[in-house]
Amino acid sequence: MNYNTRGFPPGYFFNTEMMVLSKQKRIRWIGIGLLSVIFVGITISVIIVSQRKVPTDDLRLAREALSGAKEAEANIYSEKMFREASQMYDSAMVNWARQNRRFILFRDYGRAITFAGRAKKRADEAEEESIKKSSTLNKDIESSFVSLAKKIELYNKLFKSLPISRSVFDAHNKSKMFLSESKIAHDNGKLNDADILFKKAEIYTNHANSAASKMLRDYFNDYANWSRLANDAIAASRGGNKVILVDKVAHILYVYQSGKAIRSFQAEFGSNWMAHKERNGDRATPEGNYHICNEKNRGNSAYHKALLLDYPNAEDRRMFAQNKRNGLISRGAGIGNLIEIHGNGGKGFDWTSGCVGLRDNDIDDLCRLVGPGTRVTIVGSLQPLPVITSGTDF
Predict the structure, then answer these.
(1) Residue 47: which pLDDT band, with cuts at 50, 70 and 90?
(2) Can you give the residue ranges of every domain in the chain?
(3) Fold that domain 223-388 belongs to in CATH
C-alpha cells in the first residue's frame, strides 16, 4: 500500500471529508425533523385550542340576562334570586380570569361556562318572578288603598270629635300622610316604595283606630248609669217642670217638659270632656244630677250670660275624698267649682274648662226658659254605642 508524504493512506483525507459532510447533513436533517415535529405539535395545539370553547358568549348572555332582570326590578322583588345570579356571574368572571393566566395549552373554561350558564338561568327566573310579584303587588296595593281609606274614614266618622290624646291624633295624621305618599309612589311606578309607605300608613292607622276604639268602648261602660239618670230626668219633667238634659256625645243640650224635648241647642264642653270630673283643672265636664243655683248677666260673668251649677254636689265630694285616700289624686289638688252653662260658644270644637258652652243667642233663649232651681242632668250619651256607631264594626 502506498502512503503519501504525510504517512496517511491514499484517499484518507477525501474519506474523512466525506464523513464530516455526511455527519453535518445528518445533523441538518435531524434539525429539520425536529422543527417539523415542533411545527406539527404547535399546529395541532393551535387547532386544539381554537376548537376549545371560550366563555365570552356565555358571559355576554349572562350579563344581558342580569340587565333585563334589574330593569324588571328583580333586585327588589326577587332579591334572593337576583343576588344568586350576580354571585354566579362573578364566579364565572373569576374563573375566566384565572384560566387566562395559565399557559394556553392548559386552559380550561368549563367552570366559567358553567357558572355563566347558571347565572343566566337564575337571572331569567328572577326577572320572571319579579314581573309576577310586581303585578300582584300592584293589584294588592290598589285594593289595600281602598281598605285603608275606609279605616281612616271610620276614624273621621266615629273618633274625630273625641278628646283624643296627642299621640293618637298624631298617629291618625301620619296615617293620612303616608297613605298619600304611598299613592304618589304607586302612580309613579315605584311599587316597592309604595308598599313600604303603605305599611307605615297601615301601622299608624291601626294604632290610632285601636286606641280610639278602646277609649270609646271604655267610656260607654257607664251607659247603664247614664240611661238611669236620663230616664229619671225625663220622668221629673212629666209634672210640667222644665228639666235640662245634656248629651255629651251628641253635643246637644235638651230642655224637657212633660216628658218631651221642647228645645235643643248645640253644646260644647271641656277639652277633656270624656274623662270623669275629678279635680280642679282637669278640663273635664262633670256627669250627674245638678241644679242651676245662679244666673249671671254681662256685668258679673266673663261670658255673654251664664247659669251657674251647684257643682260639686255631695256625690262629687264623696268621690273626690275617696280618690284622694286611694292616692288617685294628689294631696294638693282641689275639687274645683264654677261649672256653668254659658255663652261665647259656637266655636265648633270643645274648648271650655269643663263648662257647657252655648252660642250667645242660644243662652239667651235658654235663660228665658229656665232659671235657678232647674234640674240639670249631664250624661255621656242618651243612645247606646251600637246606635251611635250605626252598627259599624270597629
Answers:
(1) very low
(2) 223-388
(3) L,D-transpeptidase catalytic domain-like (2.40.440)
